[in-house]
Amino acid sequence: MNSREIDAPDFRYIGKKRRAKEHPRFVSGRGRYVADIALPGLKHVALVASPHASARIVSIRTEAALAAPGVLSVLTGEEFCANTDALAIGVDAPKVTRYALARGVVRYAGEWVAAVVADSRALAEDAAELIEVDYQTLPHVIDPEEALEDKTLVHPAHGSNVLYRRKFVWGPVEEAFAKAEHRIAFRAVWGRSATVPIETFGVAAQWNPGTGILDVWASIQMPKYPDQTARALRLQGNAVRVHYDVDVGGSYGVKRGIKHTVLVGYLAKKLGAPVRLIEDRLENMRGGDMQGPDRFFDMRAAFDGDGTIRALKIRAVDDVGAYAGRSPFQLGKPVTAICGPYTIAAIEYEPTSVMTHKTPQEAVRGFGQSPTNFAIERTIDRIARHLGMDRIALREKNLIRKDQFPYTIPSGSTYDSGDYHEVLGRALAAADYPALVRARDEARRAGKLAGIGVSTCLEPSGGNSAFEVLMNPKMENTTWMDSCLVRVDLSGSITGVINNSSSGQGHESLVSTVLGEVLERDPESIRVVRADSLTALPSNSPVGSRMAIMLGGAAAGAAKAIKANLVAIAAHAFECSPEDLEYKSGDVNVKGAPARRLTWDQLVETAHRKFHKLPAGMEPGLQAKFVWEVPTGGDLPTPEGRIQIYPCYAFEAHVVLVDVDPETGKPTIGRYVCGHDCGVMINPDIVHGMTYGGIAHGIGAALYEKFAYTEDGQLASGTFMDYLIPSAMEVPPLAIVDHCTPSPLTTFGQKGSGEAGYLGAPAAIANAVNDALAPLGASIDALPMTHLAIWTAIDGAQKKAS
Amino acid sequence: MRAKLRCSLLVNGERAEALVASYKTLLEVLREDLGLTGTKHGCELGECGACAVLVDGAPLLSCLELAVQCEGRDIQTIEGLAKGTELHPLQAAFADHGGSQCGYCTPGMLMTAKALLDGNPDATREQIKEAISGNLCRCTGYQQIVDAVRLAAARMKTR
């Protein structure tokens, strides 16, 4: 159910409904996932995991396992760590070393201690049970605030549990707080959740001693993956060949199994046999290192009685678990949208990344932006409640106006374009807001609890990963390109070559649509294939909502080069200038003389077969590559930490009605509307699909999903029976209302949208639950707002009242 | 326990014989012994629905059923859903409506939806949601899946 009111430019194929390229193989069971790849003689890995959150490994006895049927090898950290290099760390913390297998010390329950390779996974698991490990338990720290005290250190060599801390001050924050008529302070808590794809992570590797190449097939979504694999294995970069023609069964950020890959690569090379590790569900949730942000925000806001928000102070403490990886950078992305969609002139932001004895954190959809949006949107609602002001009026007062773009926020990022008031207005109209208010008020009169939630949030997209240099000056990285190679063969067929695996984002559809648009050829006839990492042009993989912008831009650039070649061939034939020609659906004719025309087939044949008819200096054949760098990128941060990372900013406005059962605390979403503006949509069905999925994921983060830990550091939610991802019964009908404000920075006006829905849903739902609780004088600022948490808040308020 | 048994299965209308360990699940035998990798494993605990196949017309989680228990029963997998190269209306509707994104839950979802429509061609939106509530999907939010099942049901009736 979508309202299509697009004022976008007129395109031939872009924005039109079309069956996605990928779908026919998925619906017929012909997707090719890592577990489907049959390698003759394949051997299987099972793992031994630490039962303790913190312990010294005293001894490991492997003899019985080695003697078990079908077992080829048992590997422990001593051998593995001596023969491989530690995994890359983002922030400047060289002593927080991390390997796939623990050596000497375990730092979280579930950490891998030994790996068994056998003829089947079942035999490997049986043998793994025969491995005896003696541990001496050590003190552990699970609570991030306790960890900040540094009484118990996760990595003593690092000297502190703090991986990163900095206080950024952008604008006259103290002055604004001193002068403001009102101030509030509260804590917002984002619970530890993640994306938890239905396919767990898997990787298979095969070493060929004849070529000296390690072939890798993996369910991967990770920048620099081949490079990091080679480095850790002490191989040349061109000794690792990652096959990108592997379908990935969902990722949304987390499928970065670099530790799995180094382990399997090492075993494959050592054993001279193909080796595979497919996580089981518990390994995925616990030892796979793919949990998400676990963050609290101490929020302070300064504002005037008329609703003008003058300044924010945000202290964000993120518990990244036992190792670093790239996870601290998830505090960096929010720098680029730190005031949300609002004209707030002064911001103080103090991100702190702290380690505890929990499963390490990995990138999750939005890379830290959704928790930040939640904290900002709770602040907006709390300001409204403090002032007795309507929440929508308060937002409308502070939203950046359409005529203010491009708009530079205090942290130095410039928002490209938008019409936030219009999108919010459309969402409210689609939800029939007055009717929603009547429904809520009627429910309240009938003795029920009901609330409306609104959120207005940004999706920064297409970035250059410069939070790396912002948070670690030793990493002077500003390049974050993507590429496309386009070939037109002798038959005139077009093939686009892309350089990464996909996990459901429809990149084959994206590229075929873009190539078809530029070359004016039917996308149905265009094939899109994937290089492997040895034949690939540079790519940074589908992270940060970047592919519509970056791969779309690269494909368009390559197609334009093909088109220019065709026109040049025709100009040579007609002895005229290219400006005198027009290109129509692949044919080229002299302007005003349609009969003086060369067809697509003729031009293609000339390019491939008739060197004597090519313009001097033209390369024969018909192929072009284009490597595109992030628009607006390339600058290092200023000393105050002002930086531009993301070129494009999509916007979403959510309107939600939630009923809460006062007896049980159970929330039910009755109405859900999302107004969305991500510029020009290349494949609207794909954008809508990802947005629906993002909202559902946001419902999970808001109400159900939590990696809970016991006091002794055990993961208490390692199955789908206790880590609750929404089923069809928990997701209400979702309505999306589109609006289109093209980006001035991209090829077709597109913005990124892979994280859409998720970036605003938790905030809106949290606001709705709080609106429902408002008549009781209760509030909740911690996610997930489980039935129990809501019931506890209701119960507490009732006891207080009585 | 490790002794192998001859297991005779009727899969997608064809008789298939395999020599399998007695502890192997139907999922493992389909994927590893018969090469039918369209059926997926997501949790192997009966919690996600990715491995759903039809046994005697009803959805069954193949990760929880031993293959030897399925002797003589009529097993349908995603590979048998199309008629030759012609997609089943559910498959066509999923492809047209964005019913799959990463594609991983799709085979289990389609088989579950087929069982529903075979028994109830007029299934309502709520009945569809209830029928697929044991099939977890992380990409779609179920919206386009439910739409696709409704579209397929409508197309099947006008045939």
Helix and strand topology:
The complex is a heterodimer of chains A (802) and B (159).
Chain A: E1 2-3, H1 23-27, E2 43-49, E3 55-61, H2 63-66, E4 71-76, H3 77-83, E5 105-106, E6 112-118, H4 121-128, E7 132-137, H5 144-148, E8 162-165, E9 168-170, H6 173-179, E10 182-190, E11 202-208, E12 213-218, H7 225-232, E13 240-243, H8 258-271, E14 275-278, H9 281-287, E15 295-303, E16 309-321, E17 346-355, H10 369-387, H11 391-398, E18 407-408, E19 414-415, H12 420-431, H13 433-445, E20 449-461, H14 467-471, E21 482-488, E22 494-498, H15 507-519, E23 527-530, H16 547-574, E24 581-584, E25 587-590, E26 593-598, H17 600-609, E27 623-628, E28 648-660, E29 667-677, H18 684-703, E30 735-738, H19 761-773, H20 787-801
Parallel strand pairs in A: 1-30, 2-14, 12-13, 16-17, 22-23, 29-30
Antiparallel strand pairs in A: 2-6, 3-5, 3-7, 4-6, 8-17, 9-17, 10-15, 11-12, 11-14, 15-16, 18-19, 20-28, 21-22, 21-27, 24-25, 25-26, 28-29
Helix pairs in contact in A: 7-8, 10-19, 15-16, 18-19
Chain B: E1 4-11, E2 14-21, H1 26-33, E3 52-55, E4 58-61, E5 74-76, H2 89-97, H3 106-119, H4 125-131, H5 143-157
Parallel strand pairs in B: 1-5
Antiparallel strand pairs in B: 1-2, 3-4, 3-5
Helix pairs in contact in B: 2-5
